[in-house]
Amino acid sequence: MFKKFLLAVVVVFVALEAMDFVLHGLILAGIYKETAAIWRPDMNKLMWAMYVVTFLSTIGFVYIYYKLINPKSPFIGVWYGLTFGFISGLGMGYGTYVMFPIPYSLAIIWFVGSIVCHGIAGWLTGIIIKEKV
Fold it and tell me: CA 133, CA 130: separation in Å to the nearest integer?
């Protein structure tokens, strides 16, 4: 079962990075350009840290499912991911909106994006780590 845990970490990490590219690199690129003044000027130099954060978060996400979620199935994985995404999306989208001068459209896209991306991540986790039938 530990091999499935490791496989799930790798698959979910790659999937989250791909979805981050679509969300942040394509869908939100225009909003990021419009709000360039509020972002760190050296942000691209620190992107390595985002990969580390995403990887560590992925380990935590998969570990919670692996150790605490029962029964294990793709369906339960989706619900786990949607719940996780809702909670993390609140902080990412609306928490940031309250603290920084970002457009509301960015807050709502971060919020919904978190739910969708984590729902898919949960589904993938549930496919890889599931109960033996």
Answer: 9
Query: Quick one: which of 116, 130, 128 has its CA closest to 18?
Result: 116
Domain ranges of the chain: 2-128
**3 vs 122, 124, 128, CA distance in Å?**
17, 15, 10
Instruction: For residue 105, count CB atoms less than 10 angstroms from its CB and return exposed for 0-12, middle for 13-18, buried for 19 or more.
Output: exposed
Fill in the DSSP letter of residue 43: G
The pLDDT tens digits for 65-83 are 999 999 999 999 999 999 9
Closest CA to 119 of 68, 70, 77, 61: 77
